[in-house]
């Protein structure tokens, strides 16, 4: 090649190069790819409800002759035929689709009749394709009915060797009947399956009432009884696994807008085991597309972790007859509580409906009416094309029969003409010229046998001709009148319904609102006990009968050796608590979230309840129910600092807690009270001092502040607690480590400025020991005193003598040698027995072990400082 030729070729190639911006090319290429995925793989066609891979598998089986009446064929042969001729993708993807179409728990009306292992609800995979066999199911043949009659368009396959249908004729609305799920590029579809009979009834209703509203197609009267709804044909989705749809809002939204969220709840029964009288919950149906084995596994995990309480045993007794998950309950467990926990975490799921399908090759979100309108339009085209094809065939046959009849009328002349002809071509030409037969008629007559000239044969021809002409008239009537065409569609739909309709599997339950675990737990007062080794439990307060002061109490916690009670407090099961720790952190907790145990149990590890750091202990608990507008959280530290923070700063608390107060080195949070901004506070110390001042003397600060000094401490003294004074309280109650205590009129504590030394509150000599707690109480309150070794005594506040300040007090609880008071809690307005138990009354399970204590008070000289 000369240099000139080379240059000319280079110039020609350069002229063909088009310069484009790379972002424009990337955008267009991505759009092309996205549309290829959308139209060619991921989304179903609204007309037959099938994606290309489903359609190609069924058509390949149709071409192979693997019908419902034939024998099963190896799945590998079906996959190979589909992949080699129509779907040039991976064989495993094709086989997975084939398996899905054969699973009766995946498709409401399976399109493939499988033989062998096709997987299970436990997520077990199907056997390899070389081991399984398949054939078309009877109902899938209805999707391909009349496909040979030019009812749908055909397009070239991927290599132009063959043709494949662009869509199937679909004699029933498969998109709604079997639903569809797919994820495309930037969009997805999720259409639930429905009952065949209901969908066909809705289609017929739309044909007969084309201007109807979409709500007229929905049975809203059943979904919303008593609200004047419509009695439409479709109640809602009908899942192959049954279960129940909760409420109606999601269903109505899905049908009227194309999008909605359905809550699907498992079906279960409540039984009682005859052998031991235990109650049990038996799950018989699961939400659609849920993995049964995984559900059972997760329930077991939650039971072991303590998230779900009250379950004694869990078994999967499912077999080929259906699902059966047996959940045995512990004696005394609330079946409603367990049932609600199971529903909240495992037995209820959400099905998000997105009715997205291809309409004229473009994705579109459709309402229920629009889906049926598109289907009816498709069937009108199919039936029209089929009728035209049948009419052409009938007219062709009638034309031949007319020729035969004329030939019979002139049989002698026709025979003579044929005999005198040299060959068939000459005979055909003679018949056309002599008797005005058409080319087709003449060719047919030449091929006739002599036996067809009998009188009986002539009668049959006349009968067939009459039948064909009658058929032509009917076909022309259908094509000329749309109402006749629609009647044909309706008749065919009704025939399919009569053949394949089944009762509904999915039921409906009314949505009574969100039932929380709290709604099912009785509201009762509980004593919550926390040990230093991070064991926690709650015990019904009623298990501790009121005693007169001075008793030993009863066992409240069986602590392991070396462990001690760190704190104990009284709260209702429904209380929303703020738990403050000595490290200055605060956590939110519902009382019922603490596992309930008997009095003699140790409890559960705190890690199952709160995410505390190592060595972190709960020192104070306040009830969020005490918060009102303008409330403050008032905190005091061991070193005498006080801080008030607005209650709204504690509204959003993370599971890992939040900072409530900043502490200096060596300091700890001692106690917390909720105040309203108008109250006085009383701070008590371990050495028996107390100071009362207006809470506003300590200005409000943020959560991360340390606060200001509330009391000036002497020596190694430290704060024991804080109490709030308001019009509802009458006394200040102080309890010491050795079980002594007293109540004193609040007026005995005069108001001072903060950061003073305060007044002498109680004698803390050798007999009493240091102060453990200071509280403000009122008539009717009950006092729970818990020792470090787990003994608990419950006493009416009125049983503790009223004395002045700077006294030794009386015995509130008799503590054993080596034991001391660990925590004091007040139950407001407690209800005790009319007569309190005597001081020597003991644990109901043990012999008497308490003795009366000295009731004498020992006044000492009073002092102001």
Descriptive notes:
It is a single chain. The protein has 865 residues and is α+β, with helices and mostly antiparallel strands. Among the domains are: 1-31, no CATH class; 267-346, 2-Layer Sandwich (Gyrase A, domain 2), CATH 3.30.1360.40; 372-500, Orthogonal Bundle (Topoisomerase, domain 3); 522-827, DNA gyrase/topoisomerase IV, subunit A, C-terminal (Neuraminidase), CATH 2.120.10.90. Helices cover 29% and strands 24% of the residues. The chain contains 18 helices and 42 strands. Strands 20, 21, 39, 40 and 42 form a 5-stranded mixed sheet that branches. β12 and β13 form a beta hairpin. α14 (411-420) packs across α15. The longest helix is centred in the middle third of the chain and has 42 residues, at 368-409. The chain is elongated, with a radius of gyration of 43 Å.
What's the short story on this structure?
With 865 residues, this protein is an alpha+beta fold. 29% of the residues lie in helices and 24% in strands.
Helix fraction by DSSP (H/I, runs of at least 4): 25-40%
> Structural class from helices and strands?
alpha+beta
CATH topology label of the domain at 522-827: Neuraminidase
How many strand segments? 42
Distance between the termini: 118 Å
CATH evolutionary superfamily of the domain at 522-827: DNA gyrase/topoisomerase IV, subunit A, C-terminal
CATH top level label of the domain at 522-827? Mainly Beta
Q: Judging by the overall fold, what is the CATH architecture of the domain at 522-827?
A: 6 Propeller
**What's the mean pLDDT score?**
88
Radius of gyration: 43 Å
Biggest sheet layout: 5 strands, mixed
* Discrete helix count: 18
| Overall geometric form | elongated
Low-pLDDT sequence parts: 830-865
Strand content: 15-25%
Give the oligomeric state of the chains in this entry, treating copies of one chain as homo and distinct chains as hetero: single chain
């Amino acid at each position: 090649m000369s240099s000139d030729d080379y240059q000319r070729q280079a110039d020609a190639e350069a002229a063909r190069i088009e310069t484009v911006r790379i972002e424009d090319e990337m955008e267009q290429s991505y759009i092309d790819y996205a549309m290829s995925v959308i139209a060619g793989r991921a989304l179903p066609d609204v007309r037959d409800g099938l994606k290309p891979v489903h359609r190609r598998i069924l058509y390949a089986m149709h071409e192979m002759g693997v019908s419902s009446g034939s024998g099963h064929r190896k799945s590998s042969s079906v996959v190979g035929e589909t992949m080699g001729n129509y779907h040039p993708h991976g064989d495993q993807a094709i086989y997975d689709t084939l398996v899905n179409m054969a699973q009766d728990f995946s498709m409401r009306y399976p399109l493939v009749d499988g033989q062998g292992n096709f997987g299970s609800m436990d997520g077990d995979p199907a056997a390899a394709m070389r081991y399984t066999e398949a054939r078309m199911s009877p109902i899938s043949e209805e999707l391909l009915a009349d496909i040979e009659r030019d009812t749908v368009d055909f397009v070239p396959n991927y290599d132009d060797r063959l043709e494949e249908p662009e869509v199937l004729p679909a004699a029933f609305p498969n998109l709604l009947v079997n639903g569809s799920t797919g994820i495309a590029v930037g969009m997805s579809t999720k259409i639930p399956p429905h009952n065949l009979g209901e969908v066909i009834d809705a289609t017929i209703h739309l044909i007969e009432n084309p201007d109807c509203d979409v709500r007229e197609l929905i049975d809203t009267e059943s979904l919303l009884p008593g609200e004047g709804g419509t009695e439409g044909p479709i109640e809602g989705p009908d899942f192959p696994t049954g279960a129940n749809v909760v409420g109606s809002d999601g269903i109505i939204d899905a049908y009227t807008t194309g999008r909605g969220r359905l809550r699907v709840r498992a079906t279960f029964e409540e039984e009682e085991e005859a052998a031991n009288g235990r109650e049990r919950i038996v799950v018989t149906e699961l939400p659609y597309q849920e993995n049964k084995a995984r559900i059972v596994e997760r329930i077991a995990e939650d039971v072991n972790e303590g998230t779900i309480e009250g379950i004694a045993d869990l078994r999967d007794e499912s077999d080929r007859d259906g699902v059966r998950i047996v959940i045995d309950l512990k004696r005394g467990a609330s079946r409603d509580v367990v049932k609600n926990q199971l529903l909240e975490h495992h037995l209820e799921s959400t099905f998000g409906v997105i009715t997205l399908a291809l309409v004229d090759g473009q994705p579109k979100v459709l309402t229920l009416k629009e889906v049926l309108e598109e289907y009816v339009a498709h069937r009108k085209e199919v039936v029209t094309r089929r009728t035209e094809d049948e009419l052409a065939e009938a007219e062709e046959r009638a034309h031949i029969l007319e020729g035969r009849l004329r030939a019979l009328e002139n049989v002698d002349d026709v025979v003579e003409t044929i005999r005198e002809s040299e060959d068939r071509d000459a005979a055909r030409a003679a018949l056309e010229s002599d008797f005005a037969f058409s080319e087709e008629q003449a060719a047919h007559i030449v091929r006739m046998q002599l036996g067809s000239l009998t009188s009986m044969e002539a009668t049959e021809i006349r009968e067939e001709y009459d039948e064909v002409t009658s058929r032509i008239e009917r076909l022309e009537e259908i094509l000329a009148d749309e109402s006749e065409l629609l009647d044909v569609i309706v008749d065919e739909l009704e025939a399919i319904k009569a053949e394949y309709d089944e009762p509904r599997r999915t039921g409906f339950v009314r949505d009574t609102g969100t039932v929380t675990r709290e709604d099912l737990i009785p509201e009762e007062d509980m004593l919550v006990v926390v040990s230093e080794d991070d064991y926690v439990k709650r015990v019904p307060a009623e298990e501790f009968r009121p005693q007169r002061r001075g008793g030993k109490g009863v066992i409240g916690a069986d602590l392991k050796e070396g462990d001690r009670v760190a704190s104990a407090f009284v709260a209702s099961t429904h209380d929303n608590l703020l738990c403050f720790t000595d490290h200055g952190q605060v956590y939110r907790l519902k009382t019922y979230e603490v596992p309930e145990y008997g009095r003699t149990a140790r409890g559960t590890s705190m890690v199952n309840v709160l995410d505390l750091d190592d060595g972190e202990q709960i020192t104070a608990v306040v009830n969020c129910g005490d918060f009102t507008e303008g409330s403050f959280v008032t905190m005091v530290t061991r070193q005498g600092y006080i801080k008030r923070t607005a209650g709204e700063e504690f509204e959003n608390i993370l599971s890992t807690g939040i900072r409530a107060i900043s502490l200096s080195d060596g300091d700890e949070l001692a106690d917390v009270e909720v105040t309203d901004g108008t109250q006085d506070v009383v701070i008590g110390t371990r050495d028996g001092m107390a100071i009362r001042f207006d809470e506003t003397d300590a200005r409000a600060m943020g959560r991360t502040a340390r606060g200001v000094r509330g009391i000036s401490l002497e020596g190694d003294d430290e704060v024991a607690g804080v109490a709030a004074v308001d019009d509802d309280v009458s006394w200040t109650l102080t309890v010491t480590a050795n079980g002594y205590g007293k109540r004193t009129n609040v007026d005995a504590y005069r108001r001072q400025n903060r950061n003073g030394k305060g007044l002498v509150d109680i004698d803390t000599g050798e007999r009493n020991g240091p102060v453990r707690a200071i509280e403000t109480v009122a008539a009717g309150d009950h006092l729970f005193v818990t020792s470090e070794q787990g003994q608990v005594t419950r006493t009416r506040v009125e049983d503790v003598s009223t004395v002045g300040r700077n006294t030794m007090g009386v015995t509130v609880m008799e503590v054993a040698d080596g034991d001391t008071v660990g925590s004091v809690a007040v139950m407001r307005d407690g209800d005790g027995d009319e007569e309190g138990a005597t001081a020597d009354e003991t644990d109901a399970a043990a012999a008497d072990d308490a003795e009366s204590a000295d009731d004498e008070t020992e006044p000492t000289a009073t002092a102001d400082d």
